[in-house]
């Protein structure tokens, strides 16, 4: 044990030195990135934990969501915690301006928000000293060695929530085993999405006592009454048009999608494509690509209505993905047509949509394997097969409904992760003898 601690100590020290030396380049990268998004050049004091923190925020539960995807996954948990512990102080951290914008949009008056500082020893120490959190919850996979180690030294439990570990990610972590194995062992709770993730995390060094398979929080996403009204209103404007929604696309995918859709219009000219790029920095680039393909486009950010002449709605907005899937006839989830590993298919599943996907889904392999077993997904390999599959589902409504129903049944069967996760987190907080004071009495 002592050898392992010694080994982990010097490796973490080396990691800390290298990260500190890299800071000028990291800030340079943020400045360069700020050409397209000026928010990258703002709030740098938070990156080093130099900013002032309201003393009333001390003792809060910190929930770290690296960006938009993790925040959306955390929403069922956040809302459940706020309902069960209405006096609980919550701080939500992230690392991207896009995630920050959405946090402020959704929870402006309910939580405190700041960026998580860079994982240098001094920045982490300042952050923990100023905020003095009762516990830290990290969504999915972003584990920082100094944050975990210094929290453990300060008696602050750190949990990995909704954790997933693909085979590919596990191989990557094995390459830095000397650095990460002591970190995995210091986690007080690791609540995983599935058994395969639990096994891989156990092999990496997470203790069996810390591991719990609680399920995927994203299965507990709710279609709210407000969202249902928005979907109904938007559909009324479309006047029965069939809609293909393609969410979370990356560079290299839009060209394939737009070419396939252009061919769809030859057979079904009334079809509407809703295109949702993954990163807001690419909105203008994708808009230019739509124009290059000769398609009539409306940008959501411009506030103009979708008319019968509109062929593409570029969804260059934040936090509306559920709306775009809600009005869809067919869904395709991006990141799967190129080797990015895919993105969350659960939102279209919640609406019972037939899902058409590329085969590069290793980030969500477990979910897609279950979908494949139930014939709840159609696979495509290129522009031609994408076009043919879309056209077939637009034409054969009964087939589309059957595939969508299978997806929705699978989605319903896996709900309940939020309740299990809240229970695990409550036990973690009770261990510090503080959470009971926040719970509603009576």
Work out the helicity level.
40-55%
**In this structure, how is the largest beta sheet organized?**
7 strands, parallel
The CATH C-level name of the largest domain is Alpha Beta
Average residue pLDDT: 93
Short description:
The chain is of the alpha/beta class and 442 residues long.
Topology of this protein?
Elements: H1 2-33, H2 44-47, E1 61-64, H3 68-84, E2 90-94, H4 97-107, E3 112-115, H5 121-131, E4 135-139, H6 145-153, E5 158-163, H7 167-174, H8 177-186, E6 189-192, H9 195-204, E7 211-213, H10 225-238, E8 243-249, H11 254-267, E9 272-277, H12 283-292, E10 297-299, E11 312-314, H13 321-326, E12 330-333, H14 346-350, E13 355-357, H15 365-373, E14 377-379, H16 383-395, H17 397-413, H18 417-430
Parallel strand pairs: 1-2, 1-4, 2-3, 4-5, 5-6, 6-7, 8-9, 8-12, 9-11, 10-11, 12-13, 13-14
Helix pairs in contact: 1-8, 3-18, 5-6, 6-8, 11-16
Key structural traits:
single chain; 14% strand; Rossmann fold; alpha/beta; disordered N terminus
Report what the structure shows.
The chain has 2 domains: 2-215 and 416-437, 3-Layer(aba) Sandwich (Rossmann fold); 225-413, Glycogen Phosphorylase B (Rossmann fold). 48% of the residues lie in helices and 14% in strands. The chain has 18 helices and 14 strands. It has a 7-stranded parallel β-sheet, with helices on both faces. The protein has a 7-stranded parallel β-sheet with strand order 10-11-9-8-12-13-14, with helices on both faces. The termini are far apart.
């Amino acid at each position: 044990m002592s050898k392992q601690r010694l080994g982990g100590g010097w490796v973490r020290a080396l990691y800390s030195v290298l990260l500190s030396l890299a800071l000028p380049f990291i800030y340079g990268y943020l400045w360069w990135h700020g050409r397209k998004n000026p928010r990258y050049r703002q709030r740098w004091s938070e990156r080093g934990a130099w900013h002032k923190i309201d003393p009333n925020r001390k003792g809060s539960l910190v929930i770290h969501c690296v960006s938009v995807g993790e925040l959306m996954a955390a929403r069922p948990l956040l809302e459940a915690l706020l309902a069960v512990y209405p006096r609980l102080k919550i701080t939500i951290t992230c690392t991207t301006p896009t995630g920050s914008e959405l946090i402020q949009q959704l929870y402006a008056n309910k939580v405190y928000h700041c960026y998580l500082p860079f994982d240098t020893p001094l920045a982490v120490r300042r952050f923990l000293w100023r905020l003095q959190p009762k516990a830290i919850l990290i969504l999915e996979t972003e584990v920082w060695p100094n944050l975990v180690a210094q929290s453990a030294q300060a008696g602050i439990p750190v949990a990995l929530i909704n954790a997933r570990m693909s085979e590919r990610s596990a191989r990557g972590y094995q390459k830095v085993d000397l650095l990460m194995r002591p970190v995995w062992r210091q986690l007080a709770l690791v609540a995983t999405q599935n058994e395969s993730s639990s096994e891989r995390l156990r092999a990496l060094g997470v203790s069996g006592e810390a591991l719990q398979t609680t399920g995927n929080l994203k299965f507990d996403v709710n279609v709210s009454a407000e969202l249902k009204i928005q979907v109904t209103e938007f559909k009324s404007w479309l006047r029965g048009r069939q809609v293909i929604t393609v969410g979370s696309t990356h560079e290299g995918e839009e060209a394939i999608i737009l070419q396939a859709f252009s061919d769809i219009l030859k057979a079904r000219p009334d079809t509407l494509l809703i295109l949702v790029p993954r990163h807001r920095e690419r909105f203008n680039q994708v808009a230019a690509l739509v124009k290059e393909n000769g398609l009539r486009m409306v940008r959501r950010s411009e506030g103009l209505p979708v008319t019968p002449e509109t062929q593409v709605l570029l969804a260059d907005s934040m936090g509306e993905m559920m709306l775009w899937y809600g009005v869809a006839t067919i869904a395709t989830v991006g990141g799967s047509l190129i080797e990015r590993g895919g993105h969350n298919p659960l939102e279209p599943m919640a609406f019972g949509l037939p899902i058409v996907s590329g085969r590069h889904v290793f980030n969500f392999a477990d979910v897609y394997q279950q979908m494949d077993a139930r014939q709840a997904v159609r696979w495509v390999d290129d522009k031609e097969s994408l076009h043919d599959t879309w056209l077939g589902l637009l034409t054969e409504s009964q087939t589309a409904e059957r595939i969508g129903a299978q997806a929705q049944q699978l989605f319903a069967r896996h709900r309940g992760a939020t309740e299990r996760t809240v229970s695990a987190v409550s036990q973690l907080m009770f261990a510090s003898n503080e959470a009971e004071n926040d719970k509603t009495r009576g």
